[in-house]
Amino acid sequence: MVLFKKRGVSAVVATVMLITITVVAAGIIIAFVVPFVKDELKESKACLDFREGVEFGESKFNCYMQEAGGNNYRTGFSVKINKAGVKGFKISLIDDADNSVVNDITEGKLIGEIGMVTNPRTARGGALELPNAGGQKTYFIQESIPYVRGEIAPILESGESCSVADEIKFEICAGGVDLW
Fold it and tell me: Is position 40 within any domain?
């Protein structure tokens, strides 16, 4: 009868191999995860710096009204930019059924349904202007439905859109307010 001599791996060699595999795996994970996390933190920090960079400004024009004898509504909203470095803003306008329309507003952009409440009033679809840092401008959107809520978020010079910075609830315009 032939007996095979079996030799096992010693406990010391097995332990060294497990430690080596663990160190190599940890090195590979760190090589990919650390740069990824640093990049993500850098981007989120930029938005943190501009959390209060844009807001709905106090205004009698933050309201909606129906066209006299018509089916259209205009919703007005005033925007205040508080910090330099804000290139624009993302505006979400929400109706009673929680349907929304979202637009990115930047300097000179043309959006068919949006105009500016200025003197003289800018027609819908005209070139939009942004307020300077510390300034405020008022816009309107004309649709077949009234918008009852709004959310606003800054767009940074890098082009990054941040999370919602401010919210507002629109009421029916009081007498003397004309968005037409």
Answer: yes
